[in-house]
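The aim of this short unit is practical: by the end, you should be able to scan a pair of folded records and say something sensible about each. We start with the first protein, listed as its amino acid sequence and then its structure tokens.
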Amino acid sequence: MPRRSRLLAPVAATVVVIIAGLMFAANFWTDYKWFNSVGYTNVFLTELWTRVLLFAVAALVMAVIVGASIFFAYRARPATRPMSLEQQGLDRYRQSIDPHRKLFFWIAVGALALLAGAAASGDWRVYLQFVNSADFGVADPEFGMDIAFFAFTYPFMRVLLGYLYAAVILAFIAAVIVHYLYGGVRLQNDSGQRATPAARVHLSVLLGLFVLLRAASYWLDRYGLVFSDRGYTFGASYTDVNAVKTALTILTVISVICAILFFANIAFKNTMIPVASLGLLVLSGVVVGGIYPAIVQNFQVDPNEQRLESPYIERNIESTREAYGIADAEVETYDATTELTQQELAAEADTIPSVRLADPAVVSQTFQQMQQVRGFYQFPDVLEVDRYPDADGNLIDTLVAVRELDGPPADQDNWLNRHLIYTHGFGMVAAAGNLIDNEGRPVFTEYNIPPRGDLSDVRGEYEPRIYYGREGAEYVIVQAEEEYDFPLDSENDEPDVPTLEDAVDASPDADDARVPADGDEGAEEAPAEDAEAVDEGAEDAPTSGSQAYNRYDGDGGVALNNFFDRILYAIKYQETSILLNSAITSDSRIIYERDPLDRVEKVAPFLTMDSRPYPAVVDGRIVWIVDGYTTSDGYPYANRIDFTQAVTDTFTDGSIQQVGALPGNEVNYIRNSVKATVDAYHGTVTLYRWDEEDPVLQTWEGAFPGTIVDRDEMSEELLQHVRYPDDLFKVQREIMREYHVTDAASYYGGQDFWSVPNDPTQEGDVPEPPYRQTINFPGSEEASFSLTTTFVPRGRENLAAFMAVDSNPESEDYGQLKLLELPRSTVIFGPGQVQNAFDSDADVREVLLPLEQSNAEVTRGNLLTLPFAGGLLYVEPLYVQAGGGGAASFPLLQQVMVGFGEEVAIGSNLQDALNNLFEGDEAPLPEPDAEEGTEDDEETAEAGAGDGDGGDSDANDLTDALNEAVEAWEEAQEANEDANERLREALEAIEEAAGD
């Protein structure tokens, strides 16, 4: 073979190793730099050293056990081997291996050690929980041991046994191979012995160790019964406790005896002893471990299952409700009415203005069209619902989103623009959830670039730039090139925005408007003032043509202060421009891991992230608020569920960021233990301890001390925006479907189980999402910002229950689950039935049919359910979008459908719809600008009615005068002086016709 060909393979292998080493070094060092930049180096180092420790220990144990077995097998090889065809065939292999046996030895041992170490390093979470475990303070019902044993100790012991099993089995296999190659073990029986005495002793010891480990496994399996799925419910059943537990104890004793027999064979050197021991072990496993429990289950439990399983069903119910935090749910039987009296209806009229009509999933398109400003900005598909105070200090439901930068324009999408020029989004956009303007658009409370509106007025100036968000390039480099900031002519490009000021001006009390509307005196100066506010605290933004530029002056990112760091990041992102761009200097910073979920997950790898981070204006900055969960699959008797499946609904796609869960994301314990914030400008990550009593969080705090700060360090503004998390509520409602039943007999029958209804406004079997809205919960003194959902009976569509949780952290009832159970004797329409009623009602169809037959696109908004006047009211906004309008069209709210009891109606707004719903026998709701009649008015009307002809004449005169007044008023709106004079005369005529 030519010399060049012989060198090719080593050179190629060396190049591959060097490249792999450089990639590993680049990723390792840049990770360390990132953790150092956010102040969580202790997390990086703790995980690193734990992984190194587990790798070293597992690799060493595997190498020692397997290596010692191979070494002993080779040393115990027979000095002479009998002549046989089998041995003659093996001579060729021995002659090939012997010259390189040390190399083969170290390769085999090293490879197994590396594999064992790599596998063990992946179990670092299990190890840290074991060594830092905190007690739950609750004993399991079967063994009387603290839950911490099952959550933290039991998993670690399982992992430890697994590695010892693997090491002993591999050592046994290696020993058999070596003994066979060198004649210690033979398949042919020419001399009457298949194994030499030394080989028999060696293999007997390994089998004895294996059986001894099996005994330990049997004993540990007794505690694992609390996770059994053999019975009617999850957890140890009657058969497990009364048959399997006993069987495992017997098998443990038998295994210890068999292990002793294997060790005794060292002295006896009789093949029959290990064979008999193995036979006894297998037979006892089949009879004691399999047949006996099956007999108990089939002949004792199955015929009497409900009676025998009841105590264990009760354990399952109690443990599951505690593990998922629903044990303290307040349950109330709600005898929902389907008809209203005039007094009941009038008493509820004040709650109507708080109903959130704007659908976060539909209005997102309106945000995109009216507030996008430039094509490279974008909003999420589903907006978030938060609450902000208006100028009067009243908290209102508010739809919020940040204007994020998706990247440069398509025709300018190159490396320089994407990573150095177009670096950040700009500004918060908010709209009142319960207000719609006359054209069906949401009423914006924060809008435009520079930001204007209530957030700016009430909260003061805030930093609007978004360097950390959910969209944009994987990384950006700042303090290099001038960064695109915002378009200077954005106000000329934006459509007129319906604002809260406009809504106030359009009301009958327009004189009391809180702030001047667009076009009012004093409003013209607002943009310039806001522009100054935007740039305050940053470098003066240079301008070029119609756009402003900015240079980042924050603390986020990693400083590229030397050429070596630039090389590492060039390797990490496989981009040579990081090295070659001359604008990148020692003052430049590279910003990466920009998604708030990724940042929190990285600094808190022990948490499961909620899928819905949301932005808020807090203390002069835009911050992302992220809910973090501590989860476990080790709570005894608690039913396990698939986390991803439980939180999937209309608003999610199932791509949940789950950390440290079982395959399939199974959990059976969850707490919202941490509230995290990510500064959208600096990238600062702060973890706040929210559930101080959670033992899982206490365990992780023991592993990562100083990582989480106390909740008392939350500012007042931040606390106002904390809310009950979506995914936790979805998990709890999934559990509540069955575990609202607390009686074992009723649970066994399953007649009262519920289902989460499908979203009737969407196609396919997608669960209806929970909705955030301000509701008056029955029995509460005031309205509360809540997260709500409904249940229907399993297999049916009528409403079974309504559940809500108080989402206001300043309330004493924050996190309190409240459940309204509807009586089974009263049929209350469920969401699907109400939707069918909407589609089939003649009056509703009369309004919808022309829209559906036109080229307009009709979209049904979220179907809200809320307690109302002793019953349940359904509200569904109806959006219409111009057909064929292309990208410029957006949905406008044109109609509102309502349902109460079995009646449905439609109107141009909520009040009209309710008036249509309750017309006839019930008095309609008063119009917003109508004043209640007085007793004097009624007396005047009665007197006029009793005046005979004169009264009719006076009434006609009064009617004519009123009509004249209306016409004059309409013309007066056009600033017609003649009309004003007519109005004065008409009012005088009214005075004369009405008398005093």
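Turning to the second protein, read its sequence before its tokens, just as you did above.
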Amino acid sequence: MDDKTHAPNPDNFRWDNDGTADVLPGTATRPTAGEPLASVIDRAISRRALLKGSAVAGATLVIAPSALLAPSPAVAAPRHRDPGSRLTFETVPPGNEPDIVVPPGYSVDILLRWGDPLTPAAPEFDVDQQSPAAQAQQFGFNADLVLWYPLPRLVARSVGIRGRLGAIANRSLGLLYPRLATQTSRHALVVVNHEYTSGVDMFPGYDSAAPTAEQVRIEIEAHGFSIVELRLGDDGRWRFERGSPFNRRSTGSTPIEIAGPLRGHALMRTSADPDGVEVLGSLNNCAGGKTPWGTILTCEENFDQYFANFAAVTGASRAVSERIPAPDGASERRWEDVVERFDLAKEPNEYNRFGYVVEVDPYDPGTPAKKRTALGRFKHEGAAARIARDGRVAIYSGDDARFEYVYKFVSAGTYDRFDRAANLDLLDRGTLYVARFDVGDVAGDDMGDGVWLELSPDNPVLADWTLEEILLDTRGAADRVGATPMDRPEDVEVSPQTGKVYIALTNNSRRTEPDEANPRIANEHGHIIELVEDDPADLTFRWNILVKCGDPTVAEHDTRFGDIPDPVAAGISPIADPDNLVHDDDGNLWIATDGQYFSGSVGFGQNDGIFAVPVEGTDRGRLRQFLSGVPGGEVCGPEFSGDNKTFFCAIQHPNDGEAFAKLWPTDETRVSKPSLIAVRRNDGRKIGR
């Protein structure tokens, strides 16, 4: 999601940032100043010492899939080499080339494009002959999150025979998944979110002021997510299996169960669903994550844009959405003119049914997706899972808007690797928390302590709230308890080696007062925070700023890159607007950006990309660019295959606003298409070497 400073194109419905939520100022004010190099070096040494001291605690939090076989804490195995030594690829320079650029020795394969048929019965794509029925069977628009899952033969046979996952296969999968998720698999399931649509880049002659009913319904079907099977060939390339029984779409009109504490609640009931138990579709699915039992967590982010006439909403339904309002009048998409449920003057409670984490079982086509309301309602960007010492599961998530918050949910029940079926509803009961980032022993050193504040009626500050009110108005509850407003918290990921939590804070050009965790006024380029807990069920943590993004050659950018005292001499790449994160199996952090071209008051003028940075060892902070995207396109959904020999990501809105005038992929002849790509080394070795 991006925060651009150029004049908006009225026909280009990017909806990438939230202009209605920037109402909370920063907290403690602290002036910043430049430092001499010697001071920086001294501080880097002290920071490294502190972080190494806390690494013992962090090492008890290993949550690599293989470690999930034992929910009790495991100590990371001794390392015989620096994890950053894996990153020997040749740095990709910043640029605005018309096609993807990767280091020498690597190749890019385009696996799926917008409109590709996903089943044998699905029609071939024709940009001039689109229909809602066709789009519901084709790869959706604006690919975002990408998740890779191994496909065991037993599971494939079970679904191939029954059309759904059998009990024996399900139990076996619970035992096999943690191990297989880190190994080579010749068959895999890949999940891809379809965040939003842009009519001007989908339909020739599109009129944003008066979209046709057919166009609106096509756009609804182009949302949601796709689940597809890929097969790894002997040549090291992944290929889409069109005949797989696992292939399916979930769109903006697919029935999804409402689960957790809000199921059946009065504010979840509509005329079409008087029981409040089923909603049509998930919208604005951005990032997400995986559970230890192998299900998908896909997040609804900027859902407010699809609804109209919030001014007509009154009473309790209005009260729970004052902090996350829809447009008071007509929406810019005008879906309400075609589908009544998007008109809040007619269906005021429909709005309350969006803004959740949706759990989906990729291995079972017969099981419906479920909105996990216990995780709260806000603009979820990510959902990273960890297992506590006592077996409970924690889910970390950011709320992607300026001055919003970082959350953690801790389940009431415990993970059971011997009973996968019992885990499937584990996220319906638990406690939601929000983070407060505090100053540490020394102000101004970009590190400190923090507290997880409970969001429940058991917190005396919220004693006059019901749990349901808290889950519907999660932002309001977080305001009340005193959480720290952050600079657009987007993806959150957990290191498979240390259990440390990494938070991408994309930017916040509206910040006028810095605080310890958001130290830059008008934070144009964003930063990444590293959070350390002794156990994911703990209510305290330590934190530090790993990366303060910008161009290291520009002093005014006030950059920081881990423990690197001289980023220019170290060959650090310029980077802005960190969005999505993933770790390789050595624990190095890989970053996808969104909005680099227009980042800041002047702009970087470079395509978005993928960057890799060691977070441990002597090269901690040595960030370098691995991939450069395409003009106008966001690079998102970074993901590795289990053996780390393939790197997946999505190219979203290539040639944004100009999709019919400029073409990508370069072999297209009519329109640019958002796509899923795979990057591989030509020699078949792990990515990064």
